[in-house]
Amino acid sequence: MSLVVESISKRFGPVLALDAASFTAEPGRIFGLLGANGAGKTTCMRIVLDILRADSGSVTWQGRTNWDLPRHTWGYLPEERGLYTKMRVIDVLRFFASLYGVPPARATVLVEEWLERFRVPDYRDRKVEELSKGNQQKIQFIAAILHDPDVLIMDEPFTGLDPVNVGLLKEAFLAMRDAGKTLIFSTHQMETVEELCESIAILDGGRVVVSGTVRDVKRAMGRRVVRLALEGDGTADGGVLAADAGWVTELPGVRLAQRGLATSEFSVAHGTDPARILDAAMARGARVTHFEIADPSLEEVFIEHVGRRAVDEREHHLAGTAGADR
Amino acid sequence: MRNLFPNAWHVARREYLIRVRSRTFVVLTVLLAIIALGLTIAPVALRALGNDRPLQVAVLVEADDLASDPLPLLSAALNGAAGAAGATRAELSQVADPAATESRVRNGDLDGLLTIERSDDGGLAFTYLTDAASTSPSTLAIRQAASALTIDDRLGSAGIDPADRGAIFAPPAFEARAVDPDAAAREEGGDYATRASLGTVLVVLIFMAILTYGNWIAASVAEEKSNRVMELLITAASPQQLLVGKVLGAGAAGLTQYAVMLVVGFIGLQLQGQIGRIVFGDAAAAAPGGGLTLPLLLVFGACFVGGFLVYAALYAAAGSLVSRVEEVQQMSGPIIVIAMLGYFAAIFGGTTSPNATWLSVMSFVPFFAPYLIPLRMAYDTITPLEIVAALAALALGAVLALWLASRIYAAGVLLYGQRPSLRALWRAARVAR
Asked: Is the per-residue pLDDT at B252 higher than 50?
């Protein structure tokens, strides 16, 4: 049975943070909650966790309303990182584990396992304040999962991590999914979602503009993407497609999505066979070095539904520095 | 409030350990212990320094025609009749050499030199040489003794027989009849001053605990909010568990500090007696803490706990409404005002009219009961039934305060930035879990 979010609304004074938002996250899968800053992702998570109450709507997990579920059902990694900085890592983690009913001896074993997995076993007896922000974030992740929750909810879990730690965290995600856990995380980094998530919901202005499996969401766009490279592309003087792609775009339902140096991308409308581009290239006598039919990227899906990129340059910069500051 | 434990214990345990292990706590506790020790052995120390010894007064009799030796009469006037109870206030010695005695007064060997002369009009004239102020208690006492001697002398000049003069100085029959004999009997039943000081000490102890430890709690909640650990906490535990745990943990730390202070103070009192016996050959005058009975101690304990819960809950709620630790002081202002109101009512009411009706009424208000129940008990102006009823009201108040505070807390902990309006707070508190 899945996590079902059914038409939840939440108003803060004049701001409607969530407007009848609905989506379903399948158990044992990784679910992505996408949206720009202020789209309502955090509010939505807090309502699912029942630390905020919605004005209307309901949240159920395996058929039970979230009010009735025991706290240890959930693991939560908030966007705002925070721990008791004056305490030792092991003490902080044992404390949070104790709140979820994990006995100290068991918690100690688990903490040591996880520190080992994150390649920081010597942090066990260090004070939290001595750790870098990225490492504190790993400790906080451990705090969220020590009690082995069924559903793990994470708000921007990758923000502020270096590539090595991003890799470690992704591995941990996949291991938990393989252990049958349900993971939900928010982000505005589309590449990560492509890599990890089976299903998504895109939030914009408090509304769910689209949700479902990544495949369905992409298919629902009604068009496909063709990436094409011809001999001569990718050379210093540009390439044949860069010089002239007009013969492709004059095909009905085809437009140039991205003119690349090595590979160019074309958007093909529903009803047009993408193979016609290949046929046209052959007919011109061009030598095809790369031809690929694909679904549109999530980035494109997002732009299509929200009308702008999930991360513009300014937001990206802010998210990066904010993560490092905390 | 379902499932309050064990999570409230876990929260309390963390709070307690973090607090008692912190350097600030250790330093403050040691400091308070030193102060407690100092205050309790101060009387004996002062006595050793000589501030408490009897007045040393030399008497120079220039008038050579006095009917009898003036010293016994002066001494009786100063110290009461010979053989009567009470400490000696002055020791008199007759001297003959004015110049030598004057220099002894000047270098502090003696407290004063009283010279008795016969003036030209036939009366007695007194000169008192001292470095004490002319209105000081010692000078006034000497002056009173001098007038007694003058009257005796005038009676002699009037031809009254010395034997009859004794009868003239005998105390009159004087009876003070109280409007309320019961109250008067109560006041005479024990040492009224001891009761008053005991009542004051209890009130001050509760007041200090509320302000100090209450502020701890508010600051600690605000800190959890500002360093963002709150969101993890509120996910793991319910607001009630967090609030009750915080109050219990900080309260236990506060009690630890108080216990150290009281134990050291108690040892100090014992030492005071010992030192007194060794140095002066007798125990120190009055043992403070007299009038402290077991029932009073138990009721005081209940009031301490109940009062602490009421105020600590409100402090926690105040802490949950601010975003930074610096704003705590401002937010807890109204709580401090209420706490002060009760404190001053108790101190003022205790010293002026411990059996006033308004004090009885205030004893049933949970905010003020912690001060007024022990105070009125110390003054013995409260009936056992009233004590039970007032304690019940206090307990109810504590539960209500904890409930209300946890609603505010649940709504407040996730509100950052601007301080919420009362309306917004009410709405948030109503829907919070």
From this structure: yes
